[in-house]
Amino acid sequence: MKKKPVKRWPYGVLAMILSVCIGLFIYQQYNEQQQQASTIPPVLDERILELYLQLDSFMNGKNRLYKASFDNFLYFESTFVYAQSKKLVPTQEQIDKALEQFMQEWSYENDTRPTYEKLLQMLQVTNEGFIENYGKPIAYKMATFDLLWEASQADYKEVSNPIRTWLVEQKAMNYLEQHYHKDIAPYEKNIKSQKRTAK
């Protein structure tokens, strides 16, 4: 009985299949990186600043952003950009958890801020628009801050939480001012001019 000849793939065919597989893998990796990059919010995000402005306007009846709110905004942005400098990137699961936490905060009644429905009116957005334009960027930055806080435990093992918070805050603000001084300057000028006008 004759043995069936073993079919051997020509080298050129194997090389072509391998090239296609490598190409598909590289494309998939690139596509994932592009999708992830598109979800990263910008530093000094004006949408978040607009949210602070609307909350201040509701509280004080004046269409102006107060310095305390602007300082909170800078702190929030500084921890985000400082975490980025350390290559800390949250997972989608961490972002989703932060988004759920952020949205849940708006379900509680609070005399110092508008109701969620009122806020949507002030911002002139739908619920979906609020989540997309405000909720998701803030959630991403909240998740990034959590990673920075966890990482800081290794840097400051012998330090209490309040002191560690202060140290991280100082480093983050120094980093923001060093790398984004020109971007911050127009905002600071605007805050000072608002203050003079209000007097």
* Mass-distribution shape: globular
Helix-and-strand structural type? mainly alpha
The string of secondary-structure elements, in order, is HHHHHHH
Query: How many helical elements?
Result: 7
Low-confidence stretches: 29-38
- What is the CA-atom radius of gyration, in angstroms? 25 Å
Distance between the termini: 106 Å
Helical percentage: over 70%
Mean pLDDT rating: 85
How would you sum up the major sheet?
none
Description:
- By secondary structure, this protein is an all-alpha fold.
- It has seven helices and no strands.
- It has helices at residues 11-39, 46-60, 67-85, 92-105, 116-123, 127-155, 161-198.
- It is globular.
- The N and C termini lie far apart (106 Å).
- 15% of the residues are buried.
How would you summarize what this structure contains?
The protein is an all-alpha fold and 199 residues long.
Secondary structure topology:
Elements: H1 11-39, H2 46-60, H3 67-85, H4 92-105, H5 116-123, H6 127-155, H7 161-198
Helix pairs in contact: 3-6, 3-7, 4-6
Salient structural properties:
7 helices, mainly alpha, 199 residues
